[in-house]
Amino acid sequence: MRQRSLDCVYELACRDPRVVFVGSDLGPGTLDQMKTEMPDRFYMEGVSEQAIVGLAAGLAMEGHIPYVNTIAPFFTRRAFEQVAVDLCLHQLPVRLIANGGGLVYAPLGPTHLAIEDIAALRSIPNMTIVAPCDAEEMSRFMPCTLDWPGPIYIRLGKGVDAVVSRPEDGFAIGRAIIRGTPGEVLIVTTGIGLRGALEAASDLAREGLGCGIIHMHTLKPFDRRAVLDNLQGVRLLVTLEEHTLAGGLGSMVLETIADAGTTVWPRVLRLGVPDVFPKEYGTQESMMDTFQLSATHVVSAVRSRMSELRH
Amino acid sequence: MVMTLAAPTRLSEAAPPLDERSLYLRRLVIEALEGGGRGHHGSSMSLIEILRVLYDDVLRYRPTEPKWADRDRFILSKGHGCLAQYALLADKGFIPRSELREFCRKTSILGGHPEAGKVPGVEASTGALGHGLPIGVGMALSARMRKQSHRVFVVMGDGECDEGSVWEAALIAGKHRLSNLATMVDYNKLQSYGTTREVQDLEPFVDKWRAFNFAVREVDGHDVRALRAVLRSLPFDPDRPSAVICHTVKGKGFPFAEHNATWHHRSKVTPDDVVRMYACVGGRA
Asked: Could you report the predicted ipTM of this complex, rounded to two decimals?
C-alpha cells in the first residue's frame, strides 16, 4: 500500500504540475523516478517534521499540492501544532502520507506506533482522514486527492497487505463501502481492518450468523448515514479498529448513534487498543493477537456476545 | 565573529529620535490598544520602524489588490506584534483606520494575533511561534520553482528563536540557498518572563545565523535610515538567504515601558495608561 501511494504521487505529478513531493529523510531510492524527471518538484529534507509541514503549507499557499511523507506519529505527535495551525486553520490542500498507521511498527516499539492518530486529528476542524484497506483501493483513492479542498491525512497499512477491496465499489471520499451480508451482526471497521472483518464475517456466516460490514475508509468526514441506515435488525454492533478505544472509530460510531437520538440500541462491542502503551514488540499480527483484534478473536467475541443475547 | 552585548547597546544609543511618522504609527497602535482594552504593547512598539521601512521602502504590494501575484510575501511570524502590522495596514489602506478601534472585539477582523483570510495583507495566521519561517521557506521554494521574482520576508521575535522549528527551517533555507528569503529578528532582548540573556541566551546570535548559511547584517531597528540602507541591499549574498538582526528596544518610545517586561502584554489597558501613552507620542492624532 505504501509503495502504491508513492507510485500514485508520481503518476499524479506527471499529469498535474501543482503536485510536489516532500519527504522527511525517507529510505534511499524513494520516488527516484520523480526525483530524476521532476527534480524541482521533489524535496527530500532532513528529520525536521515541524518545518516540513510548515514548508508544505507555504507551498500550498502558493497553489501547489504538496504530498508529504513520513512516519505517522511524526506528523501527529511531533508536528501536531503545524498540522492544526498551518494546514487545518488555513484549510490548505496538503496531503500527509503517514507510514505505519496503527500497529505496523510493532517491532520498533511504542515511539513508532500510530494508535491515537485518528483521535487526535479528527478533533481538528477542516481535516480529512482516510485509511484505505489495500493497494488497489489506494489506487482508486489517490486521484480523489487532487482537488479535494483542505488537508488529508492518509493512514497507510503495511507494505504488502492482501487485496480485499473490489473495483466495483469504487471510491469516494466520505462515502463508506458496505460489504458482507446484512444480519444480526454489523461490523464497522476501517483501513486494513476490513480484511479481518471479512474473514470473521465469512466464519460467522458458516455458523448461520448474518454479518454486515461497513468499511469506513474515510474517518472524517464521517459517513453517519452509512451507520444509521444499516442498523435495522442489528442485535450486535461491533467496531473494529487498529487504534486506541479512546476517541477513534468506535467512539465515532457511538457518537453518531447517540446524536441521532436513537432510542433502541443494539448491544455494542468495541474492539481496539486499550488505554496502554504496548509493552511488547513482535509483529503487527502478534500485537493484533495480543489486543484481540485478529479475525479469530472477532469471531469468538461475537459468538460469545450473541450467545449472551440469545439466553 | 563573536558578538558582545556592547554592540546592541551602542547601536541603540546611536539611534536618532523618533520622527513624526514613527510617532504617528505609534498613535495608531494606541488607538487599537485603547479600543481593545488590551494588547501586546512592548512587542509591537519595538517593531514599528522595521515594519515602517518594509512597507514604505522595500515591499512591493498593492493595497487594493492584496493577492496581487507579484507582491512580495510578508509574514509577521511574531504574530503577537500584530498591532504594529495593523497600524501599517491601516496607514497603507489595506484596512480602514476605524477598524483599529475594534481590535479584539467580538466581530472585528483584527484579533490579538493576525489571521490570513480575515485581514487583507496578512499572508499567514501566526501567533503560535516558530511557524512563519517554515511557511516562508515553502513560499520561497515556490517562487524559485516558478521562476518568479517576488521575495519573501519573515519577521520573527527573539524569544521566538527559542523554538526548534525556526532552526529546522533555517537549515532548510540554508541548504536550498534561498536568496529570495529574508528573515528579520526583532532583537529587543526581552521576552515574556525576562531578558533573553536570563531566559534563553541567543548569543552568539549572528554567528548562529551565519552557521546556518545565512548572510547576516546587524542594524539598529529604530534607525530608519540605517534600516532602509540595509533592507534595500537585499539579498546580501546572491547565493544565500539573508538574516537581519534588528537591535531594538521593547516598548520603544514609551520611557515607562522600555525594557519593561510588564509591558510585553497588557491585558487591561486603563484610561490612565492611554493618557500616559499619548503623552509620549505628541498627544492624540
From this structure: 0.96
